[in-house]
Specification:
49% of the residues lie in helices and 16% in strands. The protein is α+β, with helices and mostly antiparallel strands. Strands 1, 2, 4, 5, 6, 7, 9 and 10 form an eight-stranded antiparallel beta sheet that branches. The chain has a two-stranded antiparallel sheet with strand order 3-8.
Length: 291
C-alpha cells in the first residue's frame, strides 16, 4: 500500500495535480527502477550528485553505476548492493513523476523523507510491508476527515484497499473522504449492511470506467456492462462480515446488492464519498452510515 498512499500524500500536499498523478500511474508499470533513484532513497547520493551523473552521461557512453564510481559518488560495493535492493513501489511512482517532469530529483529526495517521517516508516523491509506501517498510513488517511477511525471503519477500509489491489489492480490512489449530502448517479449499485454497524454502501462510476473495472475484475475484455460491480461489492462486503465476526465477534447481515435507478441519491448527514483513482478512471464509493 506504500505506493497507493504516496499518491494520496502528494495530492494532499499539493505537489502534483490529479491529472499529473493519473498520467504517472498509467505509465509507472512500463518503467524500470533506476540506480540513481535507489541511491537517493538509500542516502548514498544526493539529488544534485545524481543530476551531475545524468548530465555526465550525455557526454559519456557509460552506465550510471560505472560513472558514479568513477566520479567518486559510489563505491562498487554500493553499486552491487543497489542492484539487489528490494525497492518500495512508491519509489517507482516518484521516479515516473520525475521522468514526466512534474517534480525533480531534489523534490523527490525531500518527499521520500517527508513521507516516511509523516507515517513513521523506518528501516523497511520493502519486500514485506509491515502491518504497523500500514495501520499508521491508514490512520493518517482517516485524519484528513471527521470519519471515526474505529475498528469497524478501519477494518472496512483496510479490506477495501486490499481487495482493490487483489481483484482490480494496485495502480490506484485513494483520495480523501468528503462529506456527501447528495450524489448524481452514473452507473451505480448499492448494498445495505445491518447489525452493530448499519450502513448502505454505493459503488458508482461512469460507463467506460465500469467496463474497464469489470474487465479487470474477471480478467476478460468487456465492451458493455455486466454484473461485475454487484459481484465485487457483494464479495467485498461478505468478506468484511466474516472479518468482523472473526475479530470482534459481531454478526452483520447483508441485503442483496441492487442497481440504483435514481438519477440523484439523497443521503443522510452521516454520508461520505471516497474516490479511488485508477488510470482508467475514478471509482466512487459512497458510505451512508445509519444511526
Amino acid at each position: 500500500m506504500y505506493a497507493q498512499f504516496f499518491g494520496t500524500f502528494l495530492l494532499s500536499h499539493n505537489v502534483v495535480t490529479k491529472d499529473q498523478l493519473l498520467s504517472a500511474l498509467g505509465k509507472k508499470s512500463s518503467q524500470h527502477m533506476k540506480l540513481g533513484t535507489l541511491a537517493i532513497m538509500k542516502g548514498y547520493m544526493t539529488a544534485n550528485e545524481v543530476d551531475n551523473v545524468i548530465i555526465s552521461q550525455t557526454h559519456n557512453d557509460c552506465r550510471f553505476g560505472d560513472l558514479a564510481v568513477r566520479e567518486g559518488y559510489l563505491t562498487q560495493e554500493q553499486v552491487d548492493e543497489l542492484v539487489k535492493t528490494q525497492y518500495p513501489d512508491f519509489l517507482l511512482l516518484g521516479q515516473t513523476l520525475v521522468e514526466e517532469g512534474y517534480i525533480n530529483n531534489a523534490q523527490l529526495e525531500t518527499l521520500i523523507t517527508d513521507y516516511e517521517s509523516e507515517n513513521e516508516i523506518t528501516d523497511l523491509d520493502y519486500s514485506n510491508e509491515k502491518q504497523d506501517d500500514l495501520d499508521r498510513i491508514l490512520a493518517n488517511f482517516f485524519h484528513t476527515t471527521d470519519v471515526a477511525a474505529d475498528e469497524y471503519n478501519a477494518s472496512y477500509m483496510r479490506l477495501l484497499f486490499n481487495n482493490l489491489t487483489r481483484f482490480i489492480g494496485d495502480d490506484f490512489t485513494p483520495l480523501c473522504f468528503n462529506p456527501c449530502k447528495e450524489y448524481p448517479v452514473n452507473y451505480c449499485v448499492s448494498q445495505t449492511i445491518h447489525g452493530d454497524l448499519s450502513a448502505k454502501v454505493y459503488l458508482d462510476m461512469p460507463e467506460t470506467t465500469c467496463i474497464s473495472f469489470a474487465s479487470r475484475y474477471v480478467n476478460e475484455e468487456f465492451t458493455e456492462f455486466d454484473a461485475s460491480l454487484e459481484d465485487f461489492l457483494n464479495l467485498h462486503n461478505g468478506l468484511y462480515n466474516v472479518n468482523i465476526s472473526n475479530t470482534l465477534g459481531k454478526e452483520l447481515t447483508l441485503e442483496a446488492p441492487e442497481v440504483v435507478s435514481d438519477e440523484l441519491i439523497e443521503l443522510s448527514s452521516s454520508s461520505y464519498l471516497l474516490q479511488v483513482m485508477y488510470p482508467f478512471g475514478v471509482v466512487n464509493f459512497i458510505f451512508e452510515l445509519k444511526k
